[in-house]
Design a protein that fits this description.
Radius of gyration: 28 Å
CATH class of the largest domain: Mainly Alpha
GO cellular component, one term: membrane
Pfam family, one: LRR_8
Number of domains: 5
Catalytic activity: L-threonyl-[protein] + ATP = O-phospho-L-threonyl-[protein] + ADP + H(+); L-seryl-[protein] + ATP = O-phospho-L-seryl-[protein] + ADP + H(+)
Oligomer: single chain
Keywords: Glycoprotein, Kinase, Leucine-rich repeat, Membrane, Receptor, Repeat, Serine/threonine-protein kinase, Signal, Transferase, Transmembrane, Transmembrane helix
Helix content: 25-40%
Distance between the termini: 63 Å
Structural class: alpha/beta
Largest sheet: 11 strands, mixed
Protein name: non-specific serine/threonine protein kinase
């Protein structure tokens, strides 16, 4: 007995050490608050699994949700959804008609009520609400978050002005409000001495430059409406590492002190109206790695420290009026002189008058648009209630899809200036676009070692390469004919820099090599692309050795990604890119099964009558309308293969499958279910399948004019996915309706 007690005494401390250490059981009030958050937010799906037995402080890791507890309180709440921000939405959004977007939360959502609930988590230090479809003005009651250190509500539909009450958040270290609909002037943030990160990009803020504290490390104000000079006060920002104020309307000279700030690493001033000449004797700090002053109105010669690229510093200075630079990439001096005269800031009196007139005009427009918005809103409410009733009731009557057939709409093109930037490189984990040297290309491919040769496409060869920072890339080598004018080639290179999107194999940069003495070849273009190594959609549907069989929800997510990639090519750049060689082999999947389109139509100027060298499709012989509809048809072919799991090798096979799907729709649900890939059975809602099949058949219409637009395809796929999510959340996974 004595030995037993001895063992127990020895083991007891060990048992205590091995027992899970509770960070603290949440107070009942904060537990109730989290359930209210669950009720007010309509997604992501991970919230819907909460029950009375959920221990919020020990939730499993999830990219959509993070809750951190300390001393019986929630100190961090991070929720990430998948609803597009305004400029990523299939339809243009503004502060009048935002609520009719399929990407926002429902009409019943109240941002004021939502933040009232959140402020009950009085010990929050980190609040991150990203891509959730939140809409409305940011409530002034955010000043109740007395201990908040990080506030991130990016990629939502927040409109109006930034409330003055943000200045009361004295502990705030990071403020991220990017990709919303905010407008007006930014409050004076100079008093926020703890603030280190400020990201307000992708809004409509301006025209004055905000007052900022000099303890900031990161300042991102790109893609706004700033129209002023760059403040001289930046000379005191000794901690500043990144300054991005690109794509505004900033005027006047560039303060030379920006280049010599002691901590500065990245400086992006591109696409403004900055003018004058930089002093030739300015110095650059050794830490400065990236400078972009392109597309301004600069004259004179560049200072020696940014006169050219080097191993340690990338400099982009094209499309100014700089002397001593490559003239193919510069405007003539007269262009910058004339434009600089035209962009002087208006006098204060004129500015005030114009503001009053603008207010009256906007008031009138707002009144008319408001009436139209209310009517549209009523229609949306009816539709959404119908959707919700079917989705969450577990029964689908199909009447909406029948009447809808294929949703059609007339949607204007998205602003091509804003869309590529909102899908900016940082958001999709890519380095900034850059111009490579031939030495870098040769170094990446080990002098085009045959072991790095991947294949040949039309007029271009493909090589795998490794950049100096270790990034794996794919390099296309394209030889161009003599008739290519340098100016035309430069314009095409400018278009390449915009091809950045989550659902594209994005272009990272290029290199142009000109051979003056070659009789038939004027130049070679090396296009550097991101490398996706996880295989193609074709591989996932055919290689049964893969452990991860694609179920229906995964297939829906992939096809929506494909449609979004096509939508960006059609509307996200100007002019749109059509004839994109859409094949199931060209849909690549990364490690998270995100779809990325490869081998799309990156057209370069080639000899008259020849093929587009990077694609193999002679798009010049097709009208844009026909090429657009051809893309829709090819998307339909991909959808058939995703639905049935059968690869199509001939037109007769495609026609047979299309006919069988059409017959299954017209007859009984069991007939249509029999057509589906057997590996997906039990994982789909019949109404989701039915809607997807209907839009697929419409895509394959023999009459090209009857095929839907990419916006219509995307809408139907998103509706199908919404039905699927409702069905899954109702506990139907593994059963079949």
């Amino acid at each position: 007995m004595g030995n037993l007690w001895s063992c127990i005494c020895l083991l007891f401390p060990l048992i205590i050490l091995l027992a899970p250490v509770s960070i603290g059981q949440l107070s009942p009030s904060e537990t109730r608050t989290l359930f209210q958050v669950q009720k007010l937010l309509e997604h992501p799906q991970v919230l819907q699994g909460w029950t009375n037995w959920t221990n919020f402080c020990y939730l499993p890791p999830s990219p959509s949700l993070k809750i951190v507890c300390s001393n019986n309180h929630v100190t961090e709440l991070t929720v990430v959804g998948n609803k597009s921000s305004p400029s990523q939405s299939p339809k243009p959004i503004d502060s009048v008609n935002f609520s009719v977007s399929q990407q926002t939360l429902s009409k019943n959502f109240s941002i004021d009520a939502f933040f009232t609930v959140l402020t009950r988590l009085s010990n929050l230090k980190v609040l991150s609400l990203v891509s959730l479809g939140l809409w409305g003005p940011l409530p002034a009651k955010i000043n109740r978050f007395w201990s908040l250190q990080v506030l991130n509500v990016s990629s939502n539909f927040i409109y109006g002005e930034i409330p003055q009450q943000v200045m009361s958040l004295k502990n705030l270290a990071s403020l991220v409000l990017a990709d919303n609909l905010l407008n007006g002037s930014v409050p004076d943030l100079e008093s926020l001495v703890a603030l280190r990160e400020l990201n307000l990009s992708g809004n409509h803020l301006g025209p004055s430059f905000p007052s900022l504290g000099n303890n900031l490390v990161t300042v991102i104000l790109s893609n706004n409406s700033l129209r002023s000079v760059i403040p001289s006060g930046f000379k005191n920002f000794n901690l500043l590492q990144q300054l991005d104020i690109s794509s505004n309307k900033l005027i006047g000279p560039i303060p030379s002190t920006l280049f010599s700030l002691p901590s500065i690493q990245s400086l992006d001033l591109a696409q403004n109206q900055l003018s004058g000449a930089l002093p030739t004797n300015i110095s650059c700090t050794a830490k400065l790695k990236y400078v972009d002053i392109s597309r301004n109105l600069l004259i004179g010669k560049l200072p020696s420290c940014i006169a050219s690229n080097s191993v340690n510093r990338t400099v982009i200075s094209s499309w100014n009026c700089l002397s001593g630079a490559n003239s193919s990439y510069q405007h003539p001096f007269a262009f910058c002189h004339k434009e600089a005269l035209a962009v002087k800031p208006p006098a204060e009196g004129e500015k005030e008058k114009s503001t009053i007139k603008l207010g009256l005009i906007l008031g009138i427009i707002g009144g008319v648009a408001g009436i139209a918005g209310v009517l549209g809103l009523l229609i949306v409410i009816i539709i959404r209630r119908s959707q919700t009733r079917r989705a969450y009731g577990g029964k689908f009557d199909g009447s909406f899809a029948d009447k809808m057939s294929v949703r059609s709409s007339s949607v204007p093109n998205i602003d091509s200036r804003r869309v590529p930037q909102t899908m900016r490189s940082a958001a999709i984990g890519l380095p900034p676009y850059r111009v490579f040297t031939l030495e870098e290309i040769e170094d990446a491919t080990n002098n085009f070692d045959p072991t790095n040769f991947v294949g040949e496409e039309s007029l271009g060869q493909l090589y795998k390469g490794w950049l100096r920072d270790g990034l794996v890339v794919l390099i296309k080598c394209v030889k161009l004919k003599q008739k290519n004018l340098p100016q035309s080639l430069v314009q095409h290179m400018e278009a390449l820099s915009k091809l950045r999107h989550l659902h594209l194999v994005s272009v990272l940069g290029h290199c142009i090599v000109t051979y003056q003495d070659h009789p038939s070849t004027a130049s070679t273009v090396f296009v550097v692309l991101e490398h996706i190594s996880n295989g193609s959609l074709h591989d996932y549907l055919t290689d049964w050795r893969r452990k991860d069989v694609l179920k229906w929800p995964q297939r829906m997510a992939i096809t929506i990604g494909v449609a979004r990639g096509i939508h960006f090519l059609h509307t996200g750049v100007a002019p749109g890119i059509f004839g994109n060689n859409l094949k199931i082999e060209n849909v690549l999947l990364d490690e998270s099964l995100t779809a990325k389109l490869s081998n799309y139509n990156i057209s370069l100027p080639s000899k008259v009558g020849s093929q587009s060298p990077l694609n193999g499709l002679d798009i010049h012989n097709l009208s844009s309308a026909n090429a657009e509809k051809e893309d829709i048809y090819q998307l339909g072919v991909i959808l058939v293969q995703v639905i049935t799991g059968k690869l199509i090798t001939s037109p007769s096979e495609l026609e047979e499958l299309r006919s069988q799907l059409e017959k299954g729709l017209a007859e009984a649900p069991s007939k249509l279910r029999a057509m589906i890939d057997p590996s997906t059975r039990g994982s789909f809602a019949y109404e989701s399948l039915r809607t997807t099949v209907k839009i697929t058949i419409n895509c394959l219409s023999t009459d090209s004019s009857s095929r839907p637009s990419i916006e219509d395809v995307l809408w139907n796929l998103q509706y199908s996915n919404q039905v699927q999510e409702g069905w899954t959340s109702s506990g139907n996974l593994g059963t079949q309706l």
